[in-house]
Automatic annotation (TrEMBL):
The keyword Transit peptide does not apply. GO terms for cellular component: Golgi membrane. It comes from Galdieria partita. Its EC number is 2.4.1.-. This is Hexosyltransferase. Keywords: Glycosyltransferase, Golgi apparatus, Membrane, Signal, Signal-anchor, Transferase, Transmembrane, Transmembrane helix.
Length: 300
């Protein structure tokens, strides 16, 4: 009996030790990446991930289980070399089990790091990390940052950039059984629905996030774009913007170089999608999910 108590105590102390020894960071960045996207991961590593941000931790999450033999070996080598890859056990395919993937990555991050914000992005992106840090400033609660699709009955944040305060992330991860949550469809779609019922502040960033709802730049989306024609000031992407999606891995590195040391001039002006999208801020959750309800949710 005594021994039994003792081992519970040891286990308890061990857990406390484990939890309190998690490295403390300001932001954790989870980057989804298919096994074959080595070129994209390298483009991130030699561009924005190389800008020194000691308060930021990141991981690429990819599948090792579905990789071909040769690819499997090179993935393992890449993982050992950079120590920035985590393997996740999901079937092949970008569209499969997206919600479950999100929850898996978030749980991994929560158990390995302590952080104030969690950002989920894709691997074909350019992120002004210092600027993100500056704009966030300090810890916030009940907060989400993204860019919504202003589409009738399909209004939800784009998947390429989703930032959560840690309390909100933890709430979603820990209550996955109790929330109406469809693990088959993306977290973006799930959150487009769930966020209507949560008392949180949402920053629908129309001016900083350069993504497919309406691109803000040309030069980041056309490989081979003649940069010489642009003024150097236009090359400082981070001066005006924060994040770009669908950035080709062969893109001219001058954009990243010019951008790297720009101090932030942007302040956070929180705008709710209710205001940015107006009457187009409505969603019918069943439009992309077999599990979620077939009702129209609108703001009045
Ligand atoms: C919503 O959150 C705000 C800020 O955290 C709080 O002041 C307010 O009481 C909350 N409203 C409800 C209905 O819980
Ligand atoms: C790019 O533009 C510059 C200035 O207009 C021009 O001199 C140069 O030849 C162009 N390069 C290519 C590859 O088209």
């Amino acid at each position: 009996m005594r021994n039994w108590h003792l081992s519970i105590l040891v286990l308890f102390l061990f857990n406390i030790l484990l939890l309190s020894s998690r490295p403390k960071k300001f932001i954790f960045i989870a980057i989804g990446s298919a096994p074959e996207n080595r070129n994209r991961r390298d483009a991130c590593r030699r561009s924005w991930l190389s800008w020194r941000c000691p308060n930021i931790a990141y991981r690429f999450f990819t599948e090792h289980n579905t990789a071909e033999n040769e690819q499997s070996v090179s993935l393992i080598v890449e993982r050992q070399t950079f120590r920035d890859i985590e393997f996740q056990p999901f079937p092949r395919g970008r569209e499969v089990m997206q919600g479950a993937r999100f929850l898996h990555q978030a749980s991994w991050a929560l158990s390995h790091y302590e952080f104030d914000f969690y950002l989920k992005i894709d691997d074909d992106t350019l992120l002004c990390v210092q600027k993100l840090q500056d704009m966030l400033g300090e810890k916030r609660n009940k907060f989400f940052w993204g860019k919504y699709w202003c589409k009738q009955d399909r209004s939800y944040p784009d998947e390429s950039f989703m930032l959560f305060s840690t309390d909100l992330l933890r709430f979603l991860v820990e209550n996955r059984e109790f929330l109406l949550f469809d693990e088959e469809v993306s977290m973006a779609w799930n959150f487009g629905f769930l966020s209507r019922f949560l008392n949180i502040s949402i920053f629908d960033d129309r001016n900083g996030i350069d993504s497919q709802q309406g691109y803000l730049t040309d030069f980041l989306h056309h490989p081979g774009f003649n940069l010489t024609r642009l003024m150097v000031s236009d090359l400082s992407f981070c001066n005006r913007y924060l994040f770009s999606h669908h950035v080709d891995s062969t893109l001219d590195m001058r954009i990243f170089k010019e951008s790297s040391s720009t101090p932030s001039s942007r302040r956070m002006m929180i705008e709710h999608p209710r205001d940015t999208c107006g009457t187009k801020f409505s969603i019918i959750p069943s439009r992309k999910s077999r599990k979620l309800p077939n009702i129209q949710i609108r703001t009045i």
